[in-house]
What does this fold into?
Amino acid sequence: MSQRYFLDELNQVITGQDAHHIKKVMRMKTGDEIIVCAQKKCFLASIEINDDHVTYQTIEELKQPSKMDVTLIQGLPKGSKNDFVVKYATIFNASKIILTPMQRSIAKLENTDNKLKRLSLIAKEAAELAHRFEVPEIKFEKSMSAIDFEVFDLILLADENNKTKTLDQVVPKTINDLKIALIIGPEGGITDAEREMLKNRNAVSISLGNNIIPTEAASLYALSYLSINKS
It folds into this structure.
């Protein structure tokens, strides 16, 4: 299967780390085929390597599979757990990932510009690995109150206090036309005040099963379910 690369634009030139990866890591040769993606489109392409320069010519546009529109709103976890969240939420088809402090978050929003650059690179590499057609947007928000919940058709709140209402009871059979928010609390979960605030924004509380799932992995349960039921 051809290696996939997300580019800023489709201008027949590959530079930077992607060019290094093609030449030094994958050891590709002129005539090898890759997949290039930009602006939510992907093309099969043939590369040409001339000294330090890598160029390509597109062969055909690839058909994009049906996709879901799910924004993960993740209570800010500690340290490298952010990396895990972004990598695997990307692989499991989150269209956008918002990291925000919640009342029980231990971590603080600091040095966000550098963190955003690192997390965006992690998302890019994960999207290439998963053969997605686009890289999800990664964003930090200072609090949940800064998030516009009005744009969502369905807001799902994973709540460890809810043991009965499951995803199959609240998610329609077809979700392709829905804009969905999935809210996961930080270490320690959400507070009663946050439950009430989200209830006032029409969030639907759901269970992710009998076991308590670590915050960095909790979204994968719901995202995998939604991926299977996206069409």
Notes: The two ends are 25 Å apart (CA to CA). The longest helix spans residues 112-130.
